[in-house]
Specification:
94 residues; mainly beta; Tfb1/GTF2H1
Length: 94
């Protein structure tokens, strides 16, 4: 079994209109973990993938922010907004 993981900048939201808590989203083969930038924040998340029963996401090309809404087996949900950093290939040339 591989020990690979992916880490992305994200915001954890309690609702779609919530501004969210900034932090890092880390995914490995078994679970996803969200750690807020503010270490004193109580907004920490560790969810095993086997407890996720469904997902919704914003379509590519939409004018809405990229959101992922994961629903769990207990009827709750986790809303994550991925932070996309676009870097121009011409940055630093001029």
């Amino acid at each position: 079994m591989s020990s690979g993981h992916v880490t992305k900048r994200a915001k954890y939201k309690t609702s779609v209109k919530d501004p969210g808590t900034s932090g890092a989203l880390r995914l490995n083969e078994q679970k996803l973990m969200f750690m807020p930038d503010n270490r004193n924040s109580s907004t920490k998340l560790a969810v095993e993938f086997k407890s996720i029963q469904g997902h919704k996401y914003t379509k590519e090309g939409s004018n809405k922010p990229p959101l992922i809404n994961l629903s769990n087996t207990q009827g709750g949900s986790y809303i994550l907004s991925l932070i996309i950093i676009r870097i121009s290939m011409f940055a630093g040339i001029f």
